[in-house]
Design goal:
There is one protein chain. By secondary structure, the chain is mainly alpha-helical. It has one domain: Tyrosine recombinase, N-terminal domain (DNA polymerase, domain 1), CATH 1.10.150.130. The chain is 58% helix and 6% strand. Strands 1-2 form a two-stranded antiparallel ribbon.
Length: 134
């Protein structure tokens, strides 16, 4: 039984769950964007808070997020109702696109943060970004 567990841990398909969550990485990403002088960081913070940080995806460790998770989140975002001065309606296509680009920036921040948030053996983030772009 112990040998089975050790062989699973040694497997290249094994991804340990833990590390920084998407919510934590997202906050660092937004802080970096503000320091670097990006325009509309306030709008990005609002999008992050309303559509990313409030989702189930935000609580997941970044290195455990798979392409199917991103696709599911995008599908749920398309069905989500929102309310503002224009009344109740679905989240617009442009807002969904902005949110997806913000999610990509969060994954890029995780890669920039280094190996603690990135599983180099599986190339997680590049796979997630490529699948989400479709």
């Amino acid at each position: 039984m112990l040998s089975a567990a050790s062989s699973k841990l040694a497997s290249p398909d094994y991804v340990a769950v833990g590390g920084s969550t998407l919510r934590e990485i997202g906050e660092r990403c937004l802080d970096c964007r503000e320091v670097e002088g990006f325009d509309d960081v306030g709008t990005d913070r609002s999008r992050f808070k309303c559509h990313i940080a409030s989702s189930w995806l935000a609580g997941m460790p970044v290195k455990a997020i798979a392409p199917r998770d991103v696709r599911r989140w995008v599908d749920e975002l398309a069905k989500k109702d929102t309310v503002d001065r224009r009344g109740r309606r679905k989240v617009s296509r442009q807002t969904r696109r902005h949110c997806l680009n913000l999610l990509r920036a969060c994954f890029a921040q995780a890669i920039a943060d280094g190996p603690a948030g990135y599983h180099r053996g599986r190339g997680r983030y590049s796979t997630v970004q490529a699948q989400a772009a479709r």
